[in-house]
Amino acid sequence: MPVAAGEVDPVSEARLAAAETVGSHLSAVRGRNPPATRLPVRQDASGLACLADRQAKPKAAGHPYLPPQVIAELLTDADQQVVEAAAANPSLPLAAMAKLVPCPPRL
To answer: What whole-number percentage of the chain has pLDDT above 90?
Structure first.
């Protein structure tokens, strides 16, 4: 159902709340910073270079200093370990995280 301008879409709000909850849980489980605490993006390419190494890529995908758009792209990697590390990365953008959380059924 369309939402009028200025109104809050309850489904979108629920998705974001669920994404924040999942992100906070993953951070707590892994002992990382909560997703609300965004870390500065590293300006050098050392982290990106590790993504070219097949063995180092899963570890690099979880590094919080990767640029957020790179982390989001890693969610579609062929290696499941890379996908899981990227999904658990505390610097994963909330919009990308919200896509990982299933949408609640409409009543």
So the answer is: 32
